[in-house]
Amino acid sequence: MAKPLFVQSSDGARIAYDVTGSGPTLILLHGAGKERGDWHKLGYVERLQQYFSVIAIDLRGSGESSLMADIEDYAIERVVADLHTVADACHVSQFAVWGYSFGGTIARYLGAWSDRPTAIAIIGVPLGPAVDPEFDRYIDEFTAKYAHLAKDSEAANNEGKRGSAVKGGIPVWIACFQAMRLWPSIEPNQLRCPTLLVAGAKNTRAIHWIDQNREALDRAGVKVELFPGLDHPKEFTKIDQVYPAVSAFLLDSAIQE
Predict the structure, then answer these.
(1) From CA 94, how far away is CA 97, in angstroms rounded?
(2) How far is it, in rounded angstroms, from Cα 39 to Cα 75?
(3) Is residue 159's pLDDT more than 80?
C-alpha cells in the first residue's frame, strides 16, 4: 500500500489518503468497518492504477483518519467536505468516484451536490433515504448491543488510556449511524453526472429498491448492473466479477469527458 498522506478538513478532522498511478482521477470510498487498505489488498488499486490516478481515502472515523465519536462529526456536509479537501490537496478539480456500501452512500451526495464528479459508481446500496426501515432497525440493534462498549471506551479515553472497543470503532459507528438518520434522501433525478448502480442478486435490500424504482432510474439515465450469485460482501470481494463492469463504465465516462 502506498505511503499515507494527510490533510486537515475544515472542521479539524485529519484525513488519510494515498495516491497511485496516473491518468484521470478516481477516488475510492470504502465500506463501513473497512479502510482504504482493503482496496489495495484485494487488488483494485493495482488494476486501476494502469488507467487512473487513484486516490484511496480513509473516511473520517476509519483507518488512519481521525476517530471521532460525536454525532455532529458525521454530518454528511462534513464528510463531503473531507473529500473536496483531499481533491484540493491533490490539485484535482474533477474526479470520478467508486464507492462500496457506506462509501457508495456517500458517493450519492457528491453526485447530487457537487459539479466536480465526472461519474460515480455506487456498489451495493440503493438510492433514496440513507436509512431505510431495514437499516433503521439494524441501527437500533447495533446501538443496543454495543452502547456499553462505547461508554467503556469513552471512560478509558477520558483517563488517557486506549479504549478497548476496536480502536474506537464502536463509538465511531454508533455516532455515524445515528448521524445518517439525518442525511437527506437522494433520488435518481438529483444526480448530476453519469451514474452506475451495482448490486448482487442476493443483496435483497438493494434489489428490492431497484425493482421498485426502475422507471425513475431509467428516466434519470442511471445505469444498473446486477450480478447473479453475489450477496453484499461479495459485491466487494469478488473483484473478477465486479471490476470489469465498473472499470469499463468509469473509463467510458472519462473518455466522454
Answers:
(1) 10
(2) 25
(3) no
For 5-67+75-129+187-256, give the CATH class.
Answer: alpha beta
Cα 129 from chain centroid?
15
The Cα-based distances of 163 to 63, 153, 159, 182 in angstroms read 16, 4, 10, 27
State the DSSP code for 115.
S
The residues pairing with 93 across neighbouring beta strands, listed in sequence order, are none
Percent of the chain at pLDDT exceeding 90: 86
Mean pLDDT of the chain: 92
Q: At what angle do helices 76-89 and 102-113 cross, to 10 degrees?
A: 80
Distances (CA, A) of 154 to 75, 178, 212, 236: 21, 17, 42, 32
Q: Beta partners for 28? A: 56, 98
List the one residue out of 254, 243, 193 whose CA is nearest residue 48.
Answer: 243
> How many whole angstroms separate alpha carbon 179 and alpha carbon 131?
10
The structural domains of the chain, with segments of one domain joined by +, span 5-67+75-129+187-256, 131-182
CB atoms within 10 A of CB 61: 22
Closest by Cα among 7, 4, 1, 89 to 45: 1
The DSSP letter of residue 182 is: T
Q: Check residue 66 and report its DSSP letter.
A: -
For 227-250, the pLDDT digits (tens) are 999 999 999 999 999 999 999 999
Does the pLDDT of residue 28 top 90, yes or no?
Answer: yes
Alpha-carbon span 81 to 11, nearest angstrom: 9
Q: Does the structure show a pLDDT above 80 at 83?
A: yes
